[in-house]
Amino acid sequence: MLTFYTSWGHQRSQSLTEISKQLNLNFKFSTPIDPVGPPLFPASNVISVETIELEQKAKDDIKRLGLTVKNPVKINSKEKGTQVIHGRFLHITDIHPDPYYKKGSKTDMLCHSGKGDAGKYGDAIMGCDSPLALMEETIRWVQENLKDKIDFIVWTGDNVRHDNDRRYPRTEMNIFEMNEQVSDLMYATFKNKDDPELKVDLIPSLGNNDVYPHNLFSPGPTLQTRELFKIWRNFIPQAQLHVFNRGAYFFHEVIPNQLAVLSINTLYLFQSNPLVDNCDRKKEPGYKLFQWLGYVLKEMRSRNMKVWLTGHVPPNEKNYDISCLRKYIVWSYEYRDVIIGGLYGHMNMDHFIPLDSVAAYKSIKKSLKGKASSKDIEDDFGQQFMIDDYDSDDEEYDFEEDVTHPLEETNMYRVFDENFDEDFMRIQGGVPQGKVKYMETLRESLYAGIKGEKRSGVSSERYSLAFVSASVVPTFNPGLRVWEYNITDLEEKLSKDIKYESWDNFFAGLETMMTTFDEYDRLNEDEDDKDFKINEKDPLHNIFSKKKDKTFPPKKPAHLPLGPGYVPQTFTPERYVQYYADLAGINAGKKDFQYELEYATDDNVYGLSSLVADEWIKFGRKLGKPIKDEKKKNREDDDDGKKKKKKKKHGKKKKHGKHAKSKEVNVSQNDVYEELQKIWNTYLKHTFIDSDYENKGFG
Q1: Using CB atoms within 10 A of its CB, is residue 686 exposed (0-12), middle (13-18) or buried (19+)?
Q2: Whole-model pTM?
Q3: Kind and range of the H or E element at 521?
Q4: Neighbouring-strand partners of residue 600
Q5: pLDDT tens-digit map of 374-395
Q6: Could you give the CA distance from residue 47 to residue 256 in angstroms, rounded to a whole number?
Q7: Burial 44-59, CB ≥16 within 10 A → b, else e
């Protein structure tokens, strides 16, 4: 039995079949709909499951890498065969291999020619792309050290060199060939020895340099979507061919009926892609992406599954069109019981981005002001998001700083617009400039703007998180990240005798339904076509009604508990370990090629007990506190200066001892600020992957 859900929670089967007939789609649902809820089968997809006790040698090898020793779970399922789940996955991004790279060439010639000091594996900060040797040795290191310890690999794009040397122009064929070369290397490395199946699942995402011309990607189907599907044929389920051809996004189940990864094509949300406009018009591919995302998330919720969102370009006020950014944030918020977090690349800097749902909702309200759909949207979202979020009982409350503005009116948005042009966000290669300024902007306008505990929610559920990882390309030093997540109760979860309809069947039906919607929209725009009409009394009229934007999420049902990204449970991220390659030491012959431990999130500096949102939000407050307090003090000093100019009234007496007490407080605060500044300096050091970039005067 296959259940389809509309974005308002209604189940539809028979009526959709009838519509398909009217549109000559010739689609039939093979079985009647279950009126109660998602379909359950008595036969389990999982044949067997057991926890494996590790031998001491394996434990020592895990400790060598700074990872946590935990007993893996062995699964034998009908759909995925035999898997060993370790509770870890790898994030790798922005490899940027350059076949024209020459060791000993000049870095100011992009390491393509001349006589210079270009190292064998590349040089941090010098502006060249990755030598093939760096890519090959990186993958080899992962194979030898991590392949038998991870469950899947999130691989977030840019597998082609930058288009920044006119002497070596990129062609569409060059891009297809390099994408295929990198994909073949990844597949050969992470497949089983004796059969073509992957031992470690690979989930790729499309980067802005993986297309021709760079940044430009039009709605599918196109030659590029078809060629990319061929190149990634070993990574994308065959049943999602049409979905991928539509927009180069797809779903990948990594643990049967439990955990999945959604690969999002962020080029449809990217402001630097001139072939798309926004995410509000029905014809735009960004609109269709969110429409697809909504159905997939609803199905995942019905199955009680959890998911990571992944893509190339991270969500922020400069990267995404504002209409796309606010939708991304509110979907993440309303599905916080399902979505664990977001994993991205592109920026080449290691950092995290808190995304404020209240600012997103206020932006939506502003965009709908005066429109017929405004009341419907507000009713669906709930009024709690439509009011200012201050609370006079909150000791941390500071009116000037803490009133939430719509996304496009926030200080972050304004500062980005003033200080960083489009080229900065496009990341076009070359010596990195202005990256310290970018991080200071994040500190001042984002981390310092994080609200207090009372207005963030008990588990900081007001915020969702996007994590931007270090890249392999030596913009700074190359970096890799291993996430560790909770699998304590996984065996028990997998032992339950329940099976849902296959995802292949779900996506086949979903594609037909979305084709139906597209056809309806096309016909409805043609004023001369009067054949296709839906009676206003038919419940389906609400689905197709042009008064509602179906790419806005419904509110999360109040009875659903928070998911692994907010409350510790199975699949909660517990910590991650960041590795880097010290290129200076390696190129000088002081070290063999290797990735070494840079830091872990539970070390003495970060001190995160787990990676739930509340831990990150508290850490963000630490990073921003000196800036926030300094702004507050400056305002108070300004107010005091104004008051001194006024005459004293009512003969008020001066308070004695105030100056002495102020000195004591200042000494204590200075100690705190000194410690917080050390944390920020360490965070900045890790942002630039131990390359010392922050001290070299690049801005």
Answers
A1: buried
A2: 0.88
A3: helix 503-525
A4: 577
A5: 444 544 444 444 444 444 444 4
A6: 11
A7: bbbeebeeeeeeeebe
